[in-house]
Amino acid sequence: MIRLGVPSKGRLMEQTFDWFAERGVRLSRAGSDREYAGRVEGAENVALVLLSAGEIPRELRAGRIHLGVTGTDLIREKLPGWRSHVEELAPMGFGHADLILAVPDCWADCEGLDDFATIARDFRAEHGFRLRIATKYHRLVRAWLSAEEVADYQLVDSQGATEGTVANLTAEAIADITSSGETLRANHLKIISTPILRSQATLLRSVAAGDADAVQAFADRLGL
């Protein structure tokens, strides 16, 4: 039995259901919105498992699901050496978002990473501690800043509304996912540099789960 993990709620779940329906496979909840099992019509020997998008990388790595739908940002952040754990079968064309670095829009002299690196260096000299960047994406942000040779900063964890950390004086900058940028503008923040990562919903196969022939047969059924 192939176990397919998809997001359990919201627009991402609805778009995932639509994507499979367009390929002749109908997914649906088994009962109420509080139930985390589902039905699959149009394909044999496939079981639907409803999970949070953030849980799906872990379940794929452990081999508890054979296939999963989640954002590329979550795969790359939560799975070190992700290519050894999962195979990307198909970008799904929705759930687009960019992981970006943003600073207060009143920083008129900060228009790019070179400016940011200078401000970070001067901030440390003036305040005696490193400029704080609030984020949920420590692995991706640290690797990107290292590659761009930006040094004088510290990452602080944000598990709530990251955009509010600057106004709350718990960070000087943020690195977060955005799709439209409206929330950033509402919080008087501006994006500098190109995105750290462009993300979208992706169908992935677990390496550890095995059953390669059955998974391939289902992928063929989807036209992949």
Automatic annotation (TrEMBL):
EC number from the UniProt entry: 2.4.2.17
Catalysed reactions, semicolon-separated: 1-(5-phospho-beta-D-ribosyl)-ATP + diphosphate = 5-phospho-alpha-D-ribose 1-diphosphate + ATP
GO biological process terms held by the UniProt record: L-histidine biosynthetic process
Enzyme class, broadest EC rank: transferase
Residues in coiled coil: none
Pathway: Amino-acid biosynthesis; L-histidine biosynthesis; L-histidine from 5-phospho-alpha-D-ribose 1-diphosphate: step 1/9
Domain ATP phosphoribosyltransferase catalytic: 53-222
Entry-linked Pfam families: HisG (PF01634)
One term under GO cellular component: cytoplasm
Single Gene Ontology MF annotation: ATP phosphoribosyltransferase activity
Protein function: Catalyzes the condensation of ATP and 5-phosphoribose 1-diphosphate to form N'-(5'-phosphoribosyl)-ATP (PR-ATP). Has a crucial role in the pathway because the rate of histidine biosynthesis seems to be controlled primarily by regulation of HisG enzymatic activity.
Protein's name in the database: ATP phosphoribosyltransferase
